[in-house]
């Protein structure tokens, strides 16, 4: 099977989510991504929540990668990284600005070794500027990037996204930047710096609202109770059903939506006959009255009944799922959004499937999320180190001995 990034090698220093989720995209499509980890403990993302000592968040972000554990503070450890750089295409990290330079892994150093190296960094706010030294984190990026102020109900406090959305979007920007740099290198023959950060990702996430605010007097306060967006009215929002479940209505983008919703929910007389509701946007005026009428109508039916009724009048489905329900949805199942693999410690594990589907060079599940140092001997052997040299590095504490320790523990059992 063809793999889009087969032959591309990455030295991956990233941790937690913003970096690893981004480098995983290239790994899924064939890149040889080699994680650089601390001996024994690995990267920070290997912590809780865990089962049998295996970090589930780590597994989410690190499939299809190999792991080597090195003490990069020692000259011999640095030398291993420099030797890897001779045949690598990308170095990725998401430490604070300046850290990679201080530990001897800055862009200039890698350029001395290999001018085709792409040096990709993901941070909180960027590599330079007034916030360069600040700690960057998902919640802070949501706050400074305007997303929190736009989220939640108008008469309630602003709220955060339900997941680490800044980290994930930052990860996708990192992957995108690396891919662009790889494409550019085909023309220039040179590597370059890819600089992405959480703050820019959050600002770009509301690109449409930004254009309006920058060029007009219109503003976007938080939406009314249950609303889906402050720029839309009650026909774009979330409603509680008879069984306590919720349903999302996106009628604001559908022709004749008032008539269809009235038909589906047995609203008599039909809402489209009411002169108060002629303005389909309903950003002001009688929006509260329409919201009230819709709330009453939704509570006459269970969520499944609403879905059946909406389908009958050709309104799109909008059941509000929790994560467990989401993975049972027939379209999600059809889209293969669960992949399974065998982890050497955890056993059978299920992970999120590949969101992008390519017909000729699809992503594949090839390597389970690695244990710390799982590929030490394999990778150093590929670099030309002999078995004796590898054992000497392990005895000196420069290279991890996790595989040897695992073998001893298994033999003792």
Quick rundown:
With 413 residues, this protein is of the alpha/beta class.
What can you tell me about this protein's structure?
With 413 residues, this protein is an alpha/beta fold. Helix content is 38%, strand content 14%. It has helices spanning 20-28, 56-61, 75-85, 99-102, 107-113, 138-144, 147-150, 165-188, 198-205, 207-215, 257-264, 287-298, 303-312, 323-326, 330-334, 376-382, 387-395, 402-412, and strands spanning 9-12, 32-37, 50-51, 54-55, 65-69, 90-93, 118-123, 193-197, 236-240, 246-250, 338-343, 347-352. The strands form four sheets. A six-stranded parallel β-sheet has the order 5-2-1-6-7-8, with helices on both faces. The radius of gyration is 26 Å and the shape is elongated. 37% of the residues are buried.
* Overall 3D form: elongated
Radius of gyration: 26 Å
Count the E strands: 12
Distance between the termini: 40 Å
Low-confidence stretches: none
How do the strands of the widest beta sheet line up side by side?
5-2-1-6-7-8
How would a textbook summarize the main sheet? 6 strands, parallel
Can you give the mean pLDDT? 94
Strand content range = 5-15%
Write the layout of secondary structure elements.
Blueprint: E1 9-12, H1 20-28, E2 32-37, E3 50-51, E4 54-55, H2 56-61, E5 65-69, H3 75-85, E6 90-93, H4 99-102, H5 107-113, E7 118-123, H6 138-144, H7 147-150, H8 165-188, E8 193-197, H9 198-205, H10 207-215, E9 236-240, E10 246-250, H11 257-264, H12 287-298, H13 303-312, H14 323-326, H15 330-334, E11 338-343, E12 347-352, H16 376-382, H17 387-395, H18 402-412
Parallel strand pairs: 1-2, 1-6, 2-5, 6-7, 7-8
Antiparallel strand pairs: 3-4, 9-10, 11-12
């Amino acid at each position: 099977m063809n793999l889009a990034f087969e032959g591309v090698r990455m030295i991956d220093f990233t941790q937690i989510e913003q970096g690893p989720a981004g480098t995983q995209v290239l790994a899924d499509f064939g890149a040889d991504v080699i994680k650089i980890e601390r001996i024994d403990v690995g990267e920070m993302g290997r912590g809780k929540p865990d089962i049998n000592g295996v970090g589930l968040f780590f597994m989410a972000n690190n499939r299809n990668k190999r792991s080597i554990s090195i003490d990069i503070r020692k000259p011999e450890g640095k030398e291993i990284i420099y030797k890897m750089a001779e045949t690598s295409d990308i170095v990725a990290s998401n430490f604070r600005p300046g850290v990679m330079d201080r530990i001897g892994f800055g862009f200039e150093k890698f350029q001395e070794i290999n001018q085709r190296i792409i040096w990709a960094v993901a941070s909180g706010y960027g590599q330079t500027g007034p916030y360069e030294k600040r700690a960057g984190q998902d919640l802070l990026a949501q706050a400074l990037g305007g997303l929190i102020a736009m989220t939640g109900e108008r008469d309630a406090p602003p709220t955060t996204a339900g997941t680490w959305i800044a980290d994930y979007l930052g990860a996708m920007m990192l992957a995108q930047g690396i891919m662009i740099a790889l494409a550019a290198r085909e023309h220039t023959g040179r590597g370059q710096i890819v600089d992405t950060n959480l703050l820019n990702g959050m600002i770009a996430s509301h690109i449409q609202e930004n254009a309006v605010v920058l060029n007009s007097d219109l503003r976007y306060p938080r939406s009314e109770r249950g609303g889906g967006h402050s720029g839309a009215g009650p026909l774009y929002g979330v409603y509680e059903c008879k069984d306590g479940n919720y349903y999302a209505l996106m009628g604001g983008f559908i022709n004749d939506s008032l008539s269809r919703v009235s038909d589906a929910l047995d609203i008599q007389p039909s809402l489209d006959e009411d002169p108060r509701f002629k303005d389909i946007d309903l950003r002001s005026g009688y929006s509260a009255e329409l919201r009230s009428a819709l709330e009453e109508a939704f509570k006459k039916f269970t969520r499944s009944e609403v879905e059946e009724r909406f389908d009958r009048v050709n309104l799109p489905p909008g059941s509000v799922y929790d994560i467990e329900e989401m993975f049972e949805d027939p379209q999600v199942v059809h889209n293969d959004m669960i992949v399974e693999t065998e982890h050497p410690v955890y056993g059978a594990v299920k992970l999120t499937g590949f969101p992008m589907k390519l017909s000729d060079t699809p992503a594949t599940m090839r390597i389970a999320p690695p244990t710390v140092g799982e590929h030490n001997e394999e990778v150093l052997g590929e670099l030309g180190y002999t078995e004796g040299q590898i054992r000497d590095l392990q005895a000196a504490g420069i290279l991890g001995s996790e595989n040897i320790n695992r073998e001893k523990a298994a033999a003792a059992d």
